[in-house]
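Service request form, structural biology core

Requester: graduate student, group of Dr. S.
Request type: structure prediction, single chain
Budget code: on file
Notes: please return the result as structure tokens.

Sequence provided:
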Amino acid sequence: MTVDLRERRARIFLTGFMGSGKSTVGPILANSIGYTFVDLDREVERTCQKSVRQIFNEDGETHFRTRERAVLEELARRDKLVVALGGGTLTVSDVFAFVKQCGILVYLKVP
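Core staff response, request fulfilled:
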């Protein structure tokens, strides 16, 4: 999947440690530029009909990461999105590469 910069701008992915402001900044940014905001963890919960905690406890991290990747691939087909990534999303190297390829990745760093 080769995506040019113009297409990549259609998707902005926010990453950062817990408490860095992804869920606060994301909706504000999306609203400011006319995009839709999506929280990846909430979207995984919606599709699995379980909380992230339940998925981890009942199905394990591998299952969660598989579902997370599937949701990311769905989102990558859409335009005009700001997506708040989960804390461990980018720990999987192929997911990190996928996100960088199909969107703009923004790291929110706080002191």
